């Protein structure tokens, strides 16, 4: 790779990172990203055994960069169009919808070294939320705001022991930012809360790729538990400023996948993922110093996601080489919701996640133009009065995503 290419790629990488650390640059209400990169997202993350981009290799299986082309660069930008609705039974007459438009960039690079070594780097967003609804408890109206973004910077190294076996590792610096704005109803006057916390973190990733034949591949990725240390400040009633902090426990994840070439031009893939998302329930948002009695408990410590559940995701995908110029991708996936009934509120919620997507790649010599469209089908859940944390009632979610990307080989 020439110095000019490295410089150009670095500029684009910094621009993508600038988007990614913005709280708006998250997959709306998804909390955990299902996958990144255009062809890998079109396959709904099923390509764990054989990632198509360095970005998805960093996300799910860093060992796989050993089997990418000798040099590859990829960049993609997704636009998410969300459709979120809450229809509580309390307070009477309150309901609202939100249609966020969010940006989801990622970028990666990989290069084959000497003696079986391969190296890579990627940046992407791994955890995120974006909710804005009318404030049900503010006497002056306005909107609530709940935005979280965690950006991952992922240097990778992999060693290829043979044509069949490769092991990879990545130690990933993180940066997180959480902003919350809402009103807490109390027996006295409602208490407004508005704060932002941010800070660095770290996590690690181990990957394994096994290719017993040219037509069959297996992949395994294990992401270690991690932490993002975020802090900031909040103004309490009476003008008293207090420190605010969140030690966000980044969950352990296990990815496993298999892919088989069933015909000369057709590949089928299957993957599963387990995420220790219940650890979000141990991530406590807290203020420094004693609570003021007149706050009505508004500034008491509370979990980032109370009653959080582990995530189980399964996905299936296909790749079909229609010609030397056009390759088609498709996939579907399902995951359970991770916010339990006691964790569901207008600040954070999710529904059962059923997604489908399709895309194509157009090959132009060393470059490929990647396009995809995905749909999260509408699902809803109803929280009863005795189970609700704040607002009982119906919560709905759906959305579309459009991705465009470029890949370059050599």
Element layout with pairings:
Blueprint: H1 3-20, E1 31-32, H2 38-42, H3 54-60, E2 71-88, E3 96-98, E4 101-112, E5 117-131, E6 145-160, E7 165-184, E8 191-213, E9 216-223, E10 226-236, E11 240-250, E12 253-261, E13 266-275, E14 284-287, E15 302-303, E16 311-321, E17 326-335, E18 353-364, E19 367-383, E20 393-409
Antiparallel strand pairs: 1-5, 2-3, 2-4, 2-20, 4-5, 5-6, 6-7, 7-8, 8-9, 8-10, 9-12, 10-11, 11-14, 12-13, 13-16, 14-15, 16-17, 17-18, 18-19, 19-20
Distance between the termini: 8 Å
What is the count of structural domains? 1
Round the mean pLDDT to the nearest integer and report it: 86
CATH topology description: Porin
DSSP helical segment count = 3
- Report Rg: 22 Å
The CATH superfamily title:
Outer membrane protein transport protein (OMPP1/FadL/TodX)
- How many β-strands, per DSSP? 20
CATH architecture: Beta Barrel
Low-confidence runs: 1-29, 290-297
Helix/strand class: mainly beta
Main sheet record: 14 strands, antiparallel, barrel
DSSP strand (E) fraction? over 45%
Written as H for each helix and E for each strand, in order along the chain, the element string is: HEHHEEEEEEEEEEEEEEEEEEE
Strand order of the largest sheet: 2-4-5-6-7-8-9-12-13-16-17-18-19-20
CATH class: Mainly Beta
Per the principal axes of the C-alpha atoms, what is the gross shape?
Answer: elongated
């Amino acid at each position: 790779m020439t110095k000019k290419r490295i410089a150009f790629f670095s500029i684009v990488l910094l621009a993508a990172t600038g988007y990614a650390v913005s709280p708006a640059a998250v997959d709306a209400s998804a909390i955990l990203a299902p996958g990144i990169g255009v062809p890998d997202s079109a396959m709904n993350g099923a390509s764990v055994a054989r990632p198509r981009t360095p970005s998805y290799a960093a996300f799910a299986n860093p060992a796989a960069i050993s089997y990418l082309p000798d040099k590859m660069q990829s960049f993609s930008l997704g636009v998410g169009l969300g459709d979120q609705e809450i229809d509580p039974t309390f307070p009477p007459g309150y309901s609202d919808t939100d249609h966020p438009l969010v940006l989801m960039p990622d970028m990666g690079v990989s290069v084959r070294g000497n003696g079986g070594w391969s190296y890579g780097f990627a940046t992407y967003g791994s955890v995120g939320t974006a909710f804005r609804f009318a404030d049900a408890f503010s006497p002056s109206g306005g909107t609530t705001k709940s935005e979280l973004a965690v950006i991952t910077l992922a240097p990778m190294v992999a060693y290829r022991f043979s044509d069949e076996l490769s092991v990879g590792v990545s130690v990933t610096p993180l940066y997180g930012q959480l902003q919350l704005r809402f009103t807490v109803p109390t027996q006295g006057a409602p208490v407004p809360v508005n704060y932002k916390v941010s800070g660095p973190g770290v996590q690690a990733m181990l990957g394994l790729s096994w290719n017993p034949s040219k037509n069959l591949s297996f992949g395994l990725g294990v992401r270690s538990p991690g932490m993002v240390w975020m802090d900031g400040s909040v103004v309490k009633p009476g003008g008293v400023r207090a420190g605010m902090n969140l030690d966000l426990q980044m969950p352990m994840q296990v990815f496993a996948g298999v892919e088989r070439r069933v015909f000369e031009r057709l590949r089928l893939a299957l993957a599963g993922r387990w995420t220790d998302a219940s650890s979000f329930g141990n991530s406590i948002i807290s203020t420094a110093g004693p609570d003021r009695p007149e706050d009505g408990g508004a500034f008491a410590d509370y979990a980032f996601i109370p009653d959080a559940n582990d995530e189980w995701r399964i996905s299936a995908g296909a790749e079909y080489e229609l010609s030397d110029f056009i390759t088609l991708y498709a996939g579907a996936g399902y995951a359970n919701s991770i916010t339990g009934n006691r964790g569901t509120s207008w600040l954070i919620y999710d529904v059962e996640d059923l997604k489908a997507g399709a895309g194509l790649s157009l090959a132009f010599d060393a470059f490929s133009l990647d396009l995809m469209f995905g749909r999260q089908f509408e699902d809803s859940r109803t929280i009863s009065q005795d189970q609700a944390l704040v607002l009982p009632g119906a919560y709905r979610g759906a959305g579309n995503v459009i991705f465009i990307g470029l890949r370059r080989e050599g």
